Amino acid sequence: FKGGDTCEYLLSSGRFLGEKVWQPHSCMMHKYKNSEAKNCLIDKHIVFIGDSRIRQLFYSFIKLINPQVKEEGNKHGNIHFEDKSASIKVDFLWYPEVNGSMRQCIKSWTEGSVAKPHIIVAGAATWSIKIHNGSNEALTQYKINITSIAPLLEKLAKSSDVYWVLQDPVYEDMLSDSRKMITNEKIDAYNEAAIRILNSSSRNSKAKVKLFSVSKLIARETIMKSADGLHLPESSRDTNAMILMNVYCNKIMKPIDGSCCQPQPPLTLIQKLAFCFFTFSIIGYLIISLIHRNNFRKNKSCTDLESGEEKKPVISTPNVSTLEMLLHSFCKLGLIMTYFYLCDRANLFMKENKFYTHSSFFIPIVYILVLGVFYTENTKETKVLNREQTDEWKGWMQLVILIYHISGASTFLPVYMHVRVLVAAYLFQTGYGHFSYFWIKGDFGVYRVCQVLFRLNFLVVVLCIVMDRPYQFYYFVPLVTVWFVIIYATLAVWPQIVQKKANGHCLWHLGLLLKLVCLLTCIYFLSYSQGAFEKIFSFWPLSKFFELNGNVYEWWFRWKLDRYVVFHGMLFAFIYLALQKRQMISEGKGDPLFSSRVSNVLLFISVVSFLTYSIWASSCKNKTECNELHPSVSVVQILAFILIRNIPGYVRSVYSSFFAWFGRISLELFICQYHIWLAADTKGVLVLIPGFPMFNVLVSTFIFVCVAHEISQITNDLAQVVVPKDGSALLKRLLCLAGFFSGLLLFSAAQEQSRH
């Protein structure tokens, strides 16, 4: 990858994904909405000058501002459009030939008395070929005329954005008799003349006339769908208009999924401090490693020549093991974060838009399922939702979610709805797992809470600093963190009811159920009171953690989408553990969970429920309606899966070690995909090896999985140091962390103030 300006690639190269989706070379194109287009072009004057092909581009462009515009008016005359709400003026000036009239029009803008347009889009040639019957004299005159216009366009390019649209090829078989002289050979000759002459006097200057040559590539693929062989079909000119909008607006609007024409964001103060910290960690680790290596050489075992025995020198273990482990972890983390930054913040690697096809989603799904079944092993224990089984569950769900993201399957509603159930299932496990721990162990100590919070949030906090992203951007981690705190608060608040206490008297079970009812009531109230929810999370400093784009709406939406499923997980854990305590279920190896008759009935109901949900999800009309019902019905498929997976004794006694391995690093996989597997914050796909899509996916996936595994190990190592079991040491660490986050908030506030 040569680097340089991605605008050049956007204007000159690319390919079609499918039939209608245009993929620029090396970067991503944003699809602008009307409101975004207006915000970008507010108080702007845009002029299209040329022939009927430029008029087509003009209409496609103004439809991005106002889709209600109809192609009316004098075809061979000037057309004016104005959007008064945003003070946008867009004019089409009919100059079908590059001649003295066009030159005079352009010259008027170079004189001080006339206001210059902010954007000028010009181009013409086919009329010259047609009127002069494709003569060589006409081409010679075209060269003379464009030579006289070129200095004027280059002068305008110093203060305005000037684009010269090269001529698209024609479909010669469809041309009418009056246009038969317009051949692709002639068009190529006119384009060569324009390319050679324009910018010839300002080759080393930044102010250049931008050649809009990508339209030729688009036309080659689509001109056969033209109505007359000359003019592009509507979808192709709409693509050209969208490219034009990206070229001008991306640097202003800075859309996440519009990497074309966006400059590399400057490093923030927090990012610079993080860079210094990781640099010192790497240097410190190298120094300690060299010192240890030298000490090892000095104390190397030697042979006693007199006795013939090997002396074992007493090597004092200096008190630097913890420091060395910290530096080693931060050294690795620093190198990994550098890779993150290079992948998704620096303009080093290419990024491409996603493009969904059924095969791109379902073929990898079948492939990983076959692999998962191949690696089947016996579980160590045969309890319902034992550790191996939950790891397996997390693993295959995470792999499906990863394939869903990279294939862009969110555009296919049935897949979207089933993936929403997978996310809900993660939260169900959160409710089930944490409730079970607190209920059985009765451990509400600070150490347990800090361990969980550290493991959940460490990677995300580092990425917020390095990648300059808000905490809420990684929405799943705030979600599981808040639900963990809610579960803890529900069970830890007086009266603390745990299994040991409840076994003494059945009234304690009623007390716990009352707590769960109170929790459900609070969830129900907040889900239907957006104002109350937003007030709670809009208080400083909570707002700093849960705001995205200046408000907490995204956080409310994410929380509301799966609001009941954690409660369902807690309730399921309570019922299951109560049944287990009373020995009402059989969890022996190979034994069905219940009696044969009950097991068969429950299995039948589970299969029917599972399929019923899938049929409903596949018949959804739109996301909004389905999302409204999802919180209440997602638990149906989750419970059905648990029963199908656990009622038969044999099925409960085996698990897939392949899926379980991925399950143990599922959180890291979910977070890392944002920047080093996908690109542009999950909106696109990272391209390490251009031109070979399958090979690129293999290489980037291998690196991505290795990095996720390494980060998981780093997190576990650091958790032992940052969250010690000793109470006084833990208190000191907590004070240090409080100071760290206070400093982070202050730096963040200073950054925002400087940006404004």
Provide structural commentary.
This protein is of the alpha/beta class and 756 residues long. The chain folds into two domains: 248 residues, 3-Layer(aba) Sandwich (Rossmann fold), CATH 3.40.50.1110; 375 residues, no CATH class. The chain is 61% helix and 8% strand. It has 29 helices and 15 strands. The strands form five sheets. A six-stranded mixed sheet has the order 4-5-3-6-7-8, with helices on both faces. It has a three-stranded antiparallel sheet with strand order 11-15-14. A hairpin with a 3-residue loop joins strand 1 and strand 2. Helix 13 crosses helix 26 and helix 27 crosses helix 28. It is elongated and about 105 Å long. 34% of the residues are buried. About 3% of the residues have low confidence. This is N-acetylneuraminate (7)9-O-acetyltransferase. Its EC number is 2.3.1.45. It holds the Pfam family Cas1_AcylT. Belongs to the PC-esterase family. CASD1 subfamily. It is a multi-pass membrane protein.
Structure summary, number of beta strands: 15
Biggest beta sheet summary:
6 strands, mixed
* Average pLDDT reading: 91
Shape label: elongated
Number of domains: 2
C-alpha Rg (nearest Å): 33 Å
**What percent of the residues sit in helical stretches (DSSP H or I)?**
55-70%
Poorly predicted tracts of residues? 302-320
SSE class? alpha/beta
Strand order across the biggest sheet? 4-5-3-6-7-8
Distance between the termini: 35 Å
